[in-house]
């Protein structure tokens, strides 16, 4: 069968009467023997963490989903079904029965390999220095260090090396403009998010601050102001857009990275996935 890893795709025959798998081509297969209990995981050096996860996924499909979806493994007069598994990436895999509905499986164990302090670390300097205006071909824009946004009311936002500054009449001159402060914070959080240093939830910190205000013009929160700013730059926020190289979307009124299932900073997530893949690739014979 070869050694399992990201991209591995395998098809087996499942017999509902015996509860066992067999290989589609009838050849001996270490995973089949492992699934059927004929060998333990550490008896074959080709078996690794991906195989252990795959075994659990198929078992869950048979035991759990078959109870939820009564059409699974329940065709009259039929006892054999094709089960196809695929490792999409280190933490995502699929299981399919007879080429039909695809069941997606996610492995949250990756965060065991993340440094907990990294989830809350202070973001460093902004990384985007190349200004890039709106590109309609892919609905993209860059917000870079040095960019200045005139808000048209005597105020402006200036992107510094590691934070966004609000500038204009009355600012830091005895009059507190909460709206400008909230927008400056939100834009800084948005840039850190797009550069993978912060999770999208940090953007919503500004929403909570403005929601606590008794000023009616702040009650919408920071995110609507950020979306309006993006629209003024030409971005169509009603569909997927690319900000500083990150593919984004608006879900339930919140800015999110497309495809993100975990809700943590991308840099932290990617490092955790890398370490998790290394661990999953180890032969089960070495898991002692």
Features:
288 residues; alpha+beta; 23% strand; five-stranded antiparallel β-sheet
Describe the structure.
- This protein is of the alpha+beta class and 288 residues long.
- The chain is built from six helices and 13 strands.
- The chain has helices at residues 30-35, 49-68, 178-194, 203-211, 222-232, 266-280, and strands at residues 9-15, 20-23, 80-89, 92-97, 102-106, 132-135, 140-142, 148-150, 155-159, 164-168, 241-243, 246-251, 254-257.
- The strands form three sheets. It has a five-stranded antiparallel β-sheet. Strands 6-7-11-12-13 form a five-stranded mixed β-sheet, with no helix packed on it.
- Helix 3 (178-194) packs across helix 5 (222-232).
- The longest helix is centred in the N-terminal third of the chain and has 20 residues, at 49-68.
- It is elongated, with a radius of gyration of 25 Å.
- The protein starts with 8 loop residues before the first strand and ends in an 8-residue tail after the last helix.
- Residues 209-220 have low confidence and may be disordered.
């Amino acid at each position: 069968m070869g050694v399992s890893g990201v991209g591995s795709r395998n098809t087996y025959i499942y017999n509902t009467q015996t509860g066992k798998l067999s290989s589609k081509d009838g050849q001996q297969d270490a995973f089949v023997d492992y699934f059927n209990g004929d060998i333990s995981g550490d008896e074959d050096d080709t078996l690794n963490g991906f195989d252990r996860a795959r075994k659990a996924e198929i078992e869950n499909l048979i035991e759990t989903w078959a109870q939820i979806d009564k059409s699974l493994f329940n065709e009259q007069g039929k006892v054999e079904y094709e089960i196809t598994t695929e490792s999409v990436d280190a933490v995502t895999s699929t299981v399919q029965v007879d080429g039909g509905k695809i069941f997606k499986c996610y492995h949250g164990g990756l965060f065991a390999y993340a440094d907990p302090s990294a989830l809350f670390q202070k973001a460093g300097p902004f990384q985007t220095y190349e200004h890039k205006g709106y590109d309609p071909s892919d609905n993209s824009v860059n917000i870079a260090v040095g960019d200045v946004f005139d808000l048209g009311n005597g105020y402006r936002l200036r992107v510094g090396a590691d934070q966004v500054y609000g500038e204009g009449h009355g600012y830091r001159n005895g009059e507190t403009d909460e709206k400008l402060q909230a927008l400056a914070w939100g834009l800084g959080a948005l840039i850190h998010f797009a550069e993978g240093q912060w999770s999208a939830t940090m953007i919503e910190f500004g929403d909570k601050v403005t929601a606590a205000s008794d000023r009616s013009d702040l009650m919408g929160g920071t995110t609507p102001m950020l979306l309006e700013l993006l629209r003024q730059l030409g971005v169509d926020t009603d569909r997927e857009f690319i900000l500083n190289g990150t593919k984004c979307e608006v879900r339930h009124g919140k800015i999110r990275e497309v495809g993100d299932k975990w809700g943590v900073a991308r840099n932290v997530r990617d490092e955790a996935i890398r370490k998790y893949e290394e661990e999953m690739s180890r032969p089960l014979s070495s898991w002692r």
